[in-house]
């Protein structure tokens, strides 16, 4: 990619990286003001970026929004931006260091002017950061929009977004690169590791870590799946060996979660996000409150009392979540009634159709669960928005917690009920299988194929429109159409749902592993298709997302670890309840329970010790990190020595 | 304290801060070399400190070691040293910032030349740091001692120590200050909070945190003690109410440990150790290995393979510890035999003497436990030394772990046996009381009174000697004698034993709280005397220790938390075993156990959630910390902006 020369050439004089879409009723003076602020040099408080209006599309109808703007930047601007956002790049000695323009030539792969040094995803991230930190000076409101109030230091883009003037900001896809990536990722037929570095190049670290985790998780389950198959085939009811399987499973889960930390650290180090310092977090766009002074920055910004937020959380959100859990319990009881009814019908007069009827309650229940999850999700988002969190990260954590608890309950409550109240292992196995398979199929359909089908219809419509006007020979769309097409694509809402799915699958594998060892096999199969469908939807269904620098999978690590702790409890109880184990303690059930509890506590203690012993950061990265730290300490010392000796010289 | 003017005036021309004692057979050339290295200016690799030999004592006999050296420094040197070690001091705006000589006048309490700005403890810490970082240049060995090998970059002091040439380095007491401190601390009669800031001034942060924790712990136990007394007086056998007490106890333990974190953060912040960066850790003096290059620093230093160390740990130390635990179990069984024998004698023919006989096995056992702990301690130190850890911190952690496990086992194994194998609650209560009281009395004697008595004898001897020669009117000793006296005092070995004692006391309170609510009362009483005896021994028995910067109580926080987790398990089982609770489940014992286990799991989950919800850093300190971070980010940004604008000007 060469800067200043467009890939298309017809409409822009620079490489467009990011698109801004303003509402079609935006006042002209607001547009002019915004563009000038974006173009202004940095020393006068501008962003010093290149920006241009997108010409009318060839399918130009009056319905089209004319207010689409392409944003780009010169290479020098991008490099100084890279320094500002604190990008880490590989240094000539192989270590990762914070990029600085002053010694740019000492970085690996920095050649000539430095084009192709930054990936397009990085450039887009830099532009987003520059736009986000574009701050109001002495404007009191957006010109032409008196209701969009501004105050000194307020992020302009955030205010425009919260007032609905700015509809969306999104980075553009890179057709050639995307083609190459999608080939390497899922189109070539032979099985191979995913091109994580390429994914990171194109989508950023957050995405790449998700796919890395998905791959790691799949491979980690293979041993379980391989052991599970013979268990399934030969020893369906032999609990003695299930004990061995369950213990192995529990230890294995702990080990893989610990090892993943090391893996993710290695990845994050090689991608330069491990040591990167977080910038100061700005309030999220939707945050509102009374204007005041932030005690940390001293800047004017809305303040909202923490006590009020706590009250909203504990007096409204918490009871609501509990109510939903109760509702979900109620639905579950209805499911068991239906199940009982179907069974009684089948028992009265068993035919092929009543045999199928037996499965219908489970299928209906699985569908209802999916619907409830969806509805609850909207409620959770609304509530968390209403709690008015200042930071995006805090908003996300509260949302994740709400959704996680409900989903966990929804998915596993019936299984817990069957296992521990009804104590019916055959039904448990059957329900587990039905739930697992139904939810997998539903997920794949809802997640990838449905959006793909919608997107394809849209694509075709656009193509037809264009071809009607121009007799186009090649299948490539002109830039204006391409941008409009991408603007209409669905927005990728982050890795939340993908992780949630993995989390629930992990639950199916670990919670009841000693009853249904085949779960691991099903999950491995699901994950393999998941890689393909996720890759596919990232490349073809969604707008390109902005890359998010991430050093680990964050709160999900905790969630998975919590699940593995719960798994110890459930598996131990299941084993304790099995008739084969009970046979060892023919006289006293008390002895059996005491032993079960003791073993469970032992396993839990072992888990904690294990997670303590296995270091989170691999040795070689530890050494590299401490070397960097040591060097910076030494440099500081040398600087001070120099200053001191200069001082003494001055005195002499 | 005014620099350059000695408090005594007779022997030194500067305020002596630290004493170096070399072996009496040290070669003169080695001494001359060492002194010149200490005096050399920093730019030629010296420490730029003041050093002088101590004159012969007035009690001068030929047995006295002549090689005692007093070390001091000029104020300028101390200030630049404060910057080097990264001391945090209060800034004029009330926040804590890293001290720099460049803007020294902006720090609070910096007046004139800055004397009295640094406390004596800080000065001594700085001098220790400067001595420790005095490195060999091209010497291959210590002059006159060819066996004391050196290589470029090796710390000279550490080599001298490991070769036995340097016997000890210790800071001097400050008579006046000490008098004032000891008055405020324990001599005035009215009860009050400890003068933590003064303690920190005199002994440094590590000590002050210990005393802070001791005080906090005592106050935190007061509510438990107050609830415990009526339980003891009125409801000796009423388990229903014990359940309430135990649950309160468990929640309370969690809460106080969490709140302590906030407390210790506040203290560490106000003392400037919270944000202080740790310097790169040097290998400990006793560490040996083949010379090689450290992968982090690139310096030549001994290397020792990590695998070898792991082998030593898992193949020798671990089995040894297990063997000791087995031995301890064996001793315990003998104790129970003795106990049984005494009981049978008493039952046969109960007299006053047989009544006393009943207590004898417990007392003997308590004494044997103390002796075993002592012996094991030496073995653990030897083994950990032999494991050859590179870092002092890693050595300490391994030592703490070994000693902790054994002490825990030794102290509580018999109680566990009585509680869960014999299920004899009366005996449990009795043993608990005996153990607690015996170990408290033993501890106080061994820890404070015995050393004090020894030290007093030494003091008197020295006084008598001096008075024989000089007809001294005042009771004050001249400097030379004072130094020699302090050199002979016992060395304070750190807070390890003090924390260990608190840890075991915490165990007595929390593990079996529902059986013996009076434990909290006893521990509170013990802690009050502990404060006094610890304060007393710090002021009068031991050499002054070097101050250790510490931001928290380190591994002990973890140990206390582990104890509180174990306490949940023991208390729940004790309650489950009580006849009153059993009466609620007359039909099935299974139901009872299941309920007990369920409640236990619930409590554990609640504990974890609680420790998750309570933030570790208080809000106002959080704000101060983020403000500092924000300011440094902003400063960096501004600096870069300036550079950029200068660059553009240069181009124009």
TrEMBL record, chains A, B:
The record's listing under Pfam families reads:
Anoctamin (PF04547)
Transmembrane domains' residue ranges: 208-233, 239-260, 313-336, 356-379, 399-420, 432-454, 502-525, 592-614
Q: Which domain of life is it from?
A: Eukaryota
Q: Name one GO molecular function term.
A: chloride channel activity
Query: Which of UniProt's keywords are assigned here?
Result: Membrane, Transmembrane, Transmembrane helix
Q: Where in the cell is it found?
A: Membrane
Q: Which InterPro entries match?
A: Anoctamin, Anoctamin_TM
| Anoctamin transmembrane domain boundaries | 199-627
For this record, an example GO cellular component is: plasma membrane
Bilayer topology reads: Multi-pass membrane protein
Task: Give the protein family.
Answer: Belongs to the anoctamin family.
PANTHER family, A to Z: ANOCTAMIN (PTHR12308), ANOCTAMIN-10 (PTHR12308:SF40)
Q: What is this protein called?
A: Anoctamin
Organism the protein comes from: Eleginops maclovinus
């Amino acid at each position: 990619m060469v800067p200043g020369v467009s890939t298309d050439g017809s409409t822009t004089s620079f490489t467009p990286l990011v698109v801004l879409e303003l509402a079609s009723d935006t006042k002209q003076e607001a547009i002019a003001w915004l563009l000038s602020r974006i173009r202004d040099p940095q020393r006068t408080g501008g962003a010093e970026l290149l920006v241009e209006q997108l010409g009318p599309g060839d399918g130009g109808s009056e319905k089209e929004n004319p207010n689409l703007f392409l944003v780009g930047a010169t290479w020098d601007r991008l490099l100084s931006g890279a320094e500002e956002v604190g990008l880490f790049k590989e240094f000539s000695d192989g270590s990762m260091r914070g990029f600085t323009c002053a010694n740019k030539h000492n970085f690996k792969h920095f050649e000539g002017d430095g084009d192709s040094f930054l990936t397009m995803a990085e450039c887009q991230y830099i532009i987003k950061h520059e736009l986000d930190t574009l701050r109001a000076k002495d404007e009191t409101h957006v010109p032409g929009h008196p209701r969009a109030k501004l105050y000194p230091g307020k992020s302009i883009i955030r205010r425009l977004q919260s007032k609905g003037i700015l509809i969306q900001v999104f980075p553009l896809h890179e057709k050639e690169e995307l083609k190459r990536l999608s080939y390497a990722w899922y189109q070539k037929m032979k099985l191979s590791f995913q091109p994580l570095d390429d994914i990171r190049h194109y989508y950023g670290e957050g995405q790449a870590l998700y796919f890395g985790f998905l791959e790691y998780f799949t491979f980690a389950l293979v041993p379980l799946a391989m052991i599970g198959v013979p268990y399934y085939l030969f020893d369906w009811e032999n609990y003695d060996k299930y004990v061995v399987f369950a213990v192995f499973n529990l230890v294995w889960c702990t080990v893989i979660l610990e090892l993943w930390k090391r893996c993710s650290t290695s990845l994050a180090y090689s991608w330069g996000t491990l040591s990167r310092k977080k910038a100061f977090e700005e309030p999220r766009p939707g945050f509102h409150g009374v204007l005041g002074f932030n005690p940390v920055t001293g800047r004017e910004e809305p303040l909202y009392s923490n006590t009020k937020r706590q009250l909203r959380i504990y007096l409204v959100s918490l009871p609501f979540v509990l109510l939903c859990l109760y509702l979900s319990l109620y639905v579950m009881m209805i499911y068991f009634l239906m199940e009982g009814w179907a069974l009684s019908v089948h028992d009265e007069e068993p035919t092929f159709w009543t045999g199928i009827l037996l499965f219908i309650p489970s299928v209906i229940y699985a569908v209802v669960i999916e619907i409830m999850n969806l509805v609850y999700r909207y409620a959770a988002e609304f509530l968390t928005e209403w709690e008015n969190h200042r930071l995006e990260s805090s908003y996300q954590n509260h949302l994740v917690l709400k959704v996680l608890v409900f989903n966990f309950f929804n998915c596993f409550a019936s299984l817990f009920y069957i296992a521990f109240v009804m104590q019916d292992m055959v039904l448990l196995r059957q329900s587990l299988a039905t739930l697992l398979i139904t939810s997998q199929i539903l997920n794949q359909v809802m997640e990838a194929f449905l959006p793909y089908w919608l997107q394809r219809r849209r694509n075709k419509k656009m193509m037809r429109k264009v071809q009607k006007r121009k007799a186009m020979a090649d299948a490539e769309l002109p830039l204006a159409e391409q941008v409009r097409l991408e603007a209409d694509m669905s927005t990728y809402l982050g890795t939340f749902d993908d992780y949630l799915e993995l989390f629930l699958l992990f639950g199916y594998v670990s919670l009841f592993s000693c009853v249904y060892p085949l779960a691991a096999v099903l999950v491995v199969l699901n994950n393999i298709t998941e890689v393909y469908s996720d890759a596919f939807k990232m490349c073809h269904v969604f707008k390109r997302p902005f890359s998010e620098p991430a050093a680990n999978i964050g709160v999900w690590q905790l969630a998975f670890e919590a699940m593995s702790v719960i798994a110890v409890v459930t598996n131990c109880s299941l084993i304790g309840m099995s008739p084969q184990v009970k046979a060892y303690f023919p006289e006293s059930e008390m002895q059996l329970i005491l032993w079960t509890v003791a073993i469970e506590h032992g396993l839990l203690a072992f888990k904690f010790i294990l997670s303590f012993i296995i270091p989170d950061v691999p040795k070689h990265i530890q050494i590299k990190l401490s070397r960097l730290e040591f060097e910076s300490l030494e440099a500081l010392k040398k600087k001070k020595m120099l200053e001191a000796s200069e001082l003494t010289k001055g005195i002499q």
